[in-house]
Design a protein that fits this description.
The complex is a heterodimer of chains A (136) and B (137). Chain A contains three helices and five strands. Chain A has 136 residues and is of the alpha+beta class. The relative contact order of chain A is 0.21. Chain B is α+β, with helices and mostly antiparallel strands and 137 residues long. Chain B contains four helices and five strands. In chain B, strands 3-1-2-4-5 form a five-stranded mixed β-sheet. In chain B, a hairpin with a 2-residue loop joins β4 and β5. Chain B is elongated and about 60 Å long. The two termini of chain B are 28 Å apart. In chain B, 28% of the residues are buried. The chains are: A alpha+beta (136), B alpha+beta (137). Chains A and B meet through β1, β2 and β3 of A and β1, β2 and β3 of B.
């Protein structure tokens, strides 16, 4: 069993705001992250897959194909976007880094071939804050 | 000792912005600024490096007290721009396109009055880990 990780990045705006709460409660819970006019981040996305090495290629999975899957299903939908407004798979969800990592997992998993398992989605919101999701 | 030394303070802020020229059509803005023109904004983790150059004070050994420089950056820059929409929430960018170049110039102009005239000031601003600007050039 080997683990293979690919790093991509995207830049996006978002806000942490629960529409079922008052503005005051949102500010009490989310502080400056609730700014109604948005703020933004440079997100760094690490996707780790695991499986056995193909003896013919020496690859677990062609990393160019992994990069392409991340680009089509994740980065093109998120890069230079407003996460709350512009992203179909985040509509109706709270745009926390936790929820975004989980949603990225769901975007990628159906596209991996048999024998290649998604192991971890690690998402940095800032150089000092990141979340990891392992699919359970 | 009369030797000049540069000292650097690193701070950061997170903000949303959009690059566009209101005098142009949407199509021309799309052509020039591409995805940076998204009307619902995008955002960055800005990393700011403030460089102050001068002769260390003979009594303290400091070019500038780093705690005071840090407090100055928090008061003048962080409080204005952190977790803000640069186009919407700041008076500095109501009429000015918030490119990294312009943000660096604005930061310089905000800090310069508080740094004594015998010291030089330079701003380095990272918009992403791969794109940064410096002012003065």
């Amino acid at each position: 069993m080997v683990y293979l990780t690919r790093l991509e990045h995207f830049n996006a705006a978002h806000k942490l705001y629960n529409p079922n709460w008052s503005k005051e409660k949102n500010e009490a819970v989310f502080g400056i992250c609730a700014n109604e006019n948005w703020h933004g981040h440079n997100f760094e996305l690490f996707v780790t897959i695991k499986g056995e090495v193909d003896p013919d290629t020496g690859f677990l999975f062609d990393v160019k194909k992994l990069s392409e899957l991340m680009r089509i299903h994740v980065v093109e939908k998120l890069d230079h976007k407003n996460l709350n407004m512009d992203v179909d798979f985040m509509l109706g969800k709270m745009c926390s880094t936790e929820n975004l990592a989980t949603a990225i997992w769901q975007q990628l998993e159906p596209h991996l071939p048999a024998g290649v398992q998604l192991h971890c989605v690690k998402l940095y919101e800032t150089p000092r804050i990141y979340v990891e999701y392992f699919g359970n | 000792m009369n030797k000049r030394v540069s000292v650097y303070r690193h701070e950061h802020f997170n903000a949303a912005h959009r690059l566009f020229n209101p005098a142009w059509t949407f199509e021309k803005n799309e052509e020039v600024f591409g995805k940076c023109n998204n009307p619902s904004y995008h955002g960055h983790n800005y990393e700011l490096v403030v460089k102050v150059t001068g002769v260390p004070d003979p009594e303290t050994g400091y070019v500038i007290d780093m705690k005071e420089l840090s407090a100055l950056i928090k008061r003048e820059i962080h409080s204005r721009f952190d977790h803000k929409n640069l186009n919407v929430d700041t008076k500095e960018f109501q009429q000015l396109n918030p490119t990294a170049e312009h943000i660096a110039i604005v930061i310089y102009d905000l800090l310069r009055p508080y740094i004594s005239a015998d010291k030089d000031l330079q701003i380095r601003l990272y918009e992403t880990p791969r794109n940064f600007v410096e002012y003065p050039a």
